[in-house]
Automatic annotation (TrEMBL):
Record-linked SUPFAM superfamilies: S-adenosyl-L-methionine-dependent methyltransferases
GO cellular component, one term: small ribosomal subunit
GO terms, biological process: translation
Protein keywords: Iron, Iron-sulfur, Metal-binding, Transit peptide
Coiled-coil intervals: none
Organism: candidate division WOR-3 bacterium 4484_100
InterPro entries, A to Z: Mt_RNA_Methyltransferase, Ribosomal_Rsm22-like, SAM-dependent_MTases_sf
Record-given protein name: Methyltransferase domain-containing protein
Recorded GO MF terms: iron-sulfur cluster binding; metal ion binding; methyltransferase activity; structural constituent of ribosome
């Protein structure tokens, strides 16, 4: 289980001054959640509550996701200086999550946000992190986020980030293809666009619809979470949405804040989409469920080019070749060889079947 970076934990404690306001943060988190549910921007009064809870959670999501990409799409990571545009950057969960997930590289970050307070907090973190890395570069632009402003942006980047910001620049309806074209035009050759959204059904299915439109119109290559370019099998099932639940160990200050709130803080829940103008390395399957235990057997679901597939193994068929089956979690990238094809959407793991986890979240 990946731990939260100690240097970030120390920076948050330094910026928020927890000893003075644990009680206030708890009460303001409740009001902050109400603002999010109505697609309202963060009230400056709740800035510390956001920094104490939402910022580390979102940073960790980005950090875990970025660690997956060098295996699948290595080119942007090979640049001497990695240029990153964080749209709706807020306090910097996206850019700093990328930074701590990759490290040992030179970075040039550009953050765009309409909130003066958010950019000020972002700058506080930047100055703290720069003490350990003088080569860290961040520039800021305070502007209102619109599709038109994206079209006017001229520079090109290795990574373009949208971390919980789509609702701010696009109405809560279907995302148009003009948005995709504008965003892709901001990427350099082999660049990546990374979108992370809350795991809410409405947000996620909107992201799934965006992916479907891109595939049908051949506008972009899908890097993750899908390992194919066919239609999304879950989009056809109204009750389903493609989101991921990843266990993590939250910092002690989040555990303290949660006393009395009783939120499920040991799971990161989110949906995401990574796209590029250039193709990636395609292999393996993405696990789109938790490992489910039933009487005498276990199962999980994967996404394939032919649809959603249930993969199961009877307990009596456990061997050294397939015992990694027992460690599989939502979001893992896996490889399966020599399975028993019961039906197109039902694969049985036999004793001689090989199951390998290529990459964990």
């Amino acid at each position: 289980m990946v731990r939260f970076p100690q240097v970030v934990e120390s920076a948050i404690i330094r910026v928020v001054r927890f000893s003075e306001q644990y009680k206030n943060i708890r009460s303001r988190l409740i009001k902050l959640s109400d603002h999010f549910s109505r697609f309202q921007k963060t009230d400056p009064r709740y800035r510390d509550a956001y920094t104490a809870y939402n910022f580390p959670v979102n940073l960790m999501k980005m950090m875990l996701l970025i660690k997956r990409l060098p295996l699948l799409h290595p080119e942007p990571f090979q640049k001497e200086t990695i240029r990153v545009l964080d749209i709706g950057c807020g306090e910097g969960a996206g850019m700093f999550g990328l930074y701590f997930g990759v490290k040992d590289r030179k970075f040039n970050f550009t953050g765009i946000d309409s909130s003066k307070e958010a950019l000020k907090r972002n700058g506080q973190f930047f100055r703290i992190f720069k003490q350990d890395n003088p080569d860290l570069r961040v520039s800021y632009s305070k502007k209102r986020l619109t599709l038109e402003s994206l079209k006017r942006h001229k520079k090109r980047y290795n990574f373009v980030l949208f971390i919980n910001t789509l609702a701010e620049i696009i109405s809560p309806k279907r995302i148009g293809l003009e948005f995709v074209k504008s965003v892709l035009s901001l990427t350099a050759e082999n660049g990546l666009v990374i979108i992370i959204e809350p795991a809410l059904k409405s947000n996620t299915r909107r992201l799934m619809q965006l992916r479907e439109s891109m595939v049908k119109n051949r506008l972009a290559h899908i890097v993750l979470p899908c390992r194919h370019h066919n239609s999304c099998p879950l989009l056809k099932i109204e009750r389903e949405w493609c989101h991921f639940v990843i266990p993590w160990r939250p910092p002690e200050f989040i555990i303290s804040i949660n006393q009395g709130l009783n939120r499920e803080i040991d799971r990161l829940k989110f949906s995401y989409l990574v796209i590029s103008r250039s193709p990636s390395r395609y292999f393996g399957y993405t696990v789109i469920s938790q490992l489910l235990k039933e009487k005498g057997r276990k199962k999980f679901f994967i996404c394939t080019e032919k649809g959603r597939v249930e993969v199961f193994r009877l307990n009596r068929d456990t061997t050294s070749q397939n015992n990694e089956f027992d460690t599989i979690n939502s979001g893992d990238l896996i490889e399966i060889d020599n399975f028993n094809l019961k039906r197109a959407n039902l694969w049985r793991i036999e004793k001689e079947t090989s199951v390998k986890v290529l990459q964990r979240f």
